């Protein structure tokens, strides 16, 4: 009886040890697999982060140098989607902000600090050009001026208004016509013509939309005004 009992004990201990060994091996395999998956995911995440292109202010294609303001803007699309003006990653004017309208849309920015001074739009189809002229005359030296058309920005423009915009650095304003698309960035007191201007003529043979040309977009880096 004692021998049989001892044999049973030995078998029980052997079974226990074998079970413990099998469980430990399985657990170790699962641990190895989990750690392997974890390291693989970490390596994949790192690779994705390293290959993902960097995002620059306003979504422009490259970073601006120091002492420059990043900007991006687009004209309106036909008479459906309003223009958009972004500076230093801040949307100054857009349809979402509900501060754009038919005609010429204008954002004024402090040339030293980049702070927004004012936003306005002037209806150049059914409105009066006189308030626009007074607005242009009141712009202070050193102010950055960003403009974009929506629908029609030219019908009510007269020679005086065009001259005042030309003094801000615009070249295209002299021949801006009915339903042309135009975006411009200049400044009060600028001594040369601005390099930041895009203009597409309204032409029934080339228009993207019925009665309107395609949207014009522009981006760049505006030098900060120095004392």
From TrEMBL:
The name this protein goes by in its record: ILEI/PANDER domain-containing protein
Keyword Transferase: no
Residue ranges constituting the ILEI/PANDER domain according to the UniProt record: 102-189
Lineage of source species: Eukaryota, Metazoa, Chordata, Craniata, Vertebrata
InterPro entries assigned to the protein according to its UniProt record, in alphabetical order: FAM3, ILEI/PANDER_dom, ILEI_FAM3C
Family note: Belongs to the FAM3 family.
Pfam families noted in UniProt: ILEI
Membrane spanning stretches: none
């Amino acid at each position: 009886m004692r021998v049989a009992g001892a044999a049973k004990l030995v078998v029980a201990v052997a079974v226990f040890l074998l079970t413990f060994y099998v469980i430990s091996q399985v657990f170790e395999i699962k641990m190895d697999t989990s750690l392997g998956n974890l390291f693989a995911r970490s390596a994949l995440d790192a690779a994705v982060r390293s290959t993902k292109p960097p995002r620059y202010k306003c979504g422009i294609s490259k970073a601006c140098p120091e002492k420059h303001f990043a900007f991006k803007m687009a004209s309106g699309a036909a008479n459906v989607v309003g223009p958009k003006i972004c500076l230093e990653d801040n949307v100054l004017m857009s349809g979402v902000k509900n501060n754009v309208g038919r005609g010429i849309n204008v954002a004024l920015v402090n040339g030293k600090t980049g702070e927004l001074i004012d936003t306005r739009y002037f209806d150049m189809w059914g409105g009066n050009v006189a308030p626009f002229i007074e607005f242009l005359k009141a712009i202070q030296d050193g102010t950055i001026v960003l403009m974009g058309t929506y629908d029609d920005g030219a019908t009510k423009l007269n020679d005086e208004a065009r001259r005042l915009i030309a003094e801000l650095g615009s070249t295209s304003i002299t021949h801006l016509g009915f339903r042309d698309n135009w975006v411009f960035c200049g400044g009060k007191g600028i001594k040369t013509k601005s390099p930041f201007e895009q203009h597409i003529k309204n032409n029934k043979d080339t228009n993207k939309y019925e009665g309107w040309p395609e949207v014009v977009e522009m981006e760049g880096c505006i030098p900060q005004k120095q004392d």
